């Protein structure tokens, strides 16, 4: 025989406790402890055995299963399809999380409108706004007219939402947001651990039974993590994170989990007053458009997921006004910037530690990849020597504490992107065999060797500019 007893388990770290607490004693999460029921054996002291139940369906060999039962269907938004692996899959559940005001609802309204252009229906359920508010936003972004197949419902009861799904029979259901939904079959308030888990389970079961694609909008915490129980990410098939600076227009859609494709794809969007647009080639957003080269700048190629992006590093050295030198870094890891400064001071003999150092990227880009180390070092050296580099050169490589340069992953993909963008010179660590046509590769094993190459490139570029200037002057004089 076995009797039931109650325990309390954290939904994030699975820690068990004998009584309920508001904050998990193991991981420190608030509101993550929930009551669970466990069975303990009594009487004979042996574990109780439950007789095997008859299966409702027979297990079949893997070779007999059709591989094309779950096909992607395009959402009509190319950048979203890129992250999803080709589109949404009927019966799949996608969780889209992001900060307030980042553009989640705007993107999903565009998706709903695009789905209906193929003759299918879309149901947009909002627990935060009325149907009139959604229509006003749709009119503002140009999605209000010609969308008779987009159905709106302002509901917060999950059972009513299930009724709307049965009545409308849509191909796509959007729930904005899962934290505002509630059900009377579970305890707690809307947005709590128990409610979110119960609502997600009910919606998932209904949409998978009918073959309907479901997109859930999720809130995020102050730390940027998805709000709610950690098990929410395990219940869904795809987890997407929509991020961007509220003061800028660039938005990045990142795949965190994807059961139907790669989980490291990135989509780029521009959010403006009239809607949101996907960007197939976003590299120009991260370059400063200037007519002539400027000292203290270096261009690199970073990999965001599988996507190569061109980025620019800018450095400025100034004389400190008094006290300790100032360090201001934007878009670059502060610890890596300090490490690169120390390497230049120790191994290259650049006395820049006593200067105020300002480092930044263009367009709000974040360079977390170590492949941008060499570009930061070259930008600092260029600023210290007041020596501008040509705008056709890219710098890629990781800097070690011994002053050596290391290869980075995806070098071939980075060089191909640089060649496609029209760059002609690449300064990289040794070890790359395949070089794209039209790209001159300069290999440097150490930071000192890279600085020597930098001086040669800058001198050659200055000589070429001086020769061109003399030719232009001679032609002007001859014409006069």
UniProtKB/TrEMBL annotation:
<keyword id="KW-0234">DNA repair</keyword>
<keyword id="KW-0238">DNA-binding</keyword>
<keyword id="KW-0547">Nucleotide-binding</keyword>
<comment type="similarity">
    <text>Belongs to the RecA family. RadA subfamily.</text>
</comment>
<feature type="binding site">
    <location>
        <begin position="98"/>
        <end position="105"/>
    </location>
    <ligand>
        <name>ATP</name>
    </ligand>
</feature>
<dbReference type="InterPro" id="IPR014721">
    <property type="entry name" value="Ribsml_uS5_D2-typ_fold_subgr"/>
</dbReference>
<dbReference type="InterPro" id="IPR003593">
    <property type="entry name" value="AAA+_ATPase"/>
</dbReference>
<dbReference type="GO" id="GO:0000725">
    <property type="term" value="P:recombinational repair"/>
</dbReference>
<keyword id="KW-0227">DNA damage</keyword>
<dbReference type="InterPro" id="IPR020568">
    <property type="entry name" value="Ribosomal_Su5_D2-typ_SF"/>
</dbReference>
<feature type="domain" description="RecA family profile 1">
    <location>
        <begin position="69"/>
        <end position="220"/>
    </location>
</feature>
<dbReference type="Pfam" id="PF18073">
    <property type="entry name" value="Zn_ribbon_LapB"/>
</dbReference>
<protein>
    <recommendedName>
        <fullName>DNA repair protein RadA</fullName>
    </recommendedName>
</protein>
<keyword id="KW-0378">Hydrolase</keyword>
<dbReference type="GO" id="GO:0003684">
    <property type="term" value="F:damaged DNA binding"/>
</dbReference>
<dbReference type="GO" id="GO:0005829">
    <property type="term" value="C:cytosol"/>
</dbReference>
<comment type="function">
    <text>DNA-dependent ATPase involved in processing of recombination intermediates, plays a role in repairing DNA breaks. Stimulates the branch migration of RecA-mediated strand transfer reactions, allowing the 3' invading strand to extend heteroduplex DNA faster. Binds ssDNA in the presence of ADP but not other nucleotides, has ATPase activity that is stimulated by ssDNA and various branched DNA structures, but inhibited by SSB. Does not have RecA's homology-searching function.</text>
</comment>
<dbReference type="Pfam" id="PF13481">
    <property type="entry name" value="AAA_25"/>
</dbReference>
<dbReference type="InterPro" id="IPR027417">
    <property type="entry name" value="P-loop_NTPase"/>
</dbReference>
<feature type="short sequence motif" description="RadA KNRFG motif">
    <location>
        <begin position="257"/>
        <end position="261"/>
    </location>
</feature>
<feature type="region of interest" description="Lon-protease-like">
    <location>
        <begin position="356"/>
        <end position="480"/>
    </location>
</feature>
<comment type="function">
    <text>Plays a role in repairing double-strand DNA breaks, probably involving stabilizing or processing branched DNA or blocked replication forks.</text>
</comment>
<dbReference type="InterPro" id="IPR020588">
    <property type="entry name" value="RecA_ATP-bd"/>
</dbReference>
<dbReference type="Pfam" id="PF13541">
    <property type="entry name" value="ChlI"/>
</dbReference>
<dbReference type="InterPro" id="IPR041166">
    <property type="entry name" value="Rubredoxin_2"/>
</dbReference>
<dbReference type="GO" id="GO:0008270">
    <property type="term" value="F:zinc ion binding"/>
</dbReference>
<dbReference type="GO" id="GO:0005524">
    <property type="term" value="F:ATP binding"/>
</dbReference>
<dbReference type="GO" id="GO:0140664">
    <property type="term" value="F:ATP-dependent DNA damage sensor activity"/>
</dbReference>
<dbReference type="GO" id="GO:0016787">
    <property type="term" value="F:hydrolase activity"/>
</dbReference>
<keyword id="KW-0862">Zinc</keyword>
<keyword id="KW-0346">Stress response</keyword>
<dbReference type="InterPro" id="IPR004504">
    <property type="entry name" value="DNA_repair_RadA"/>
</dbReference>
<keyword id="KW-0863">Zinc-finger</keyword>
<keyword id="KW-0067">ATP-binding</keyword>
<keyword id="KW-0479">Metal-binding</keyword>
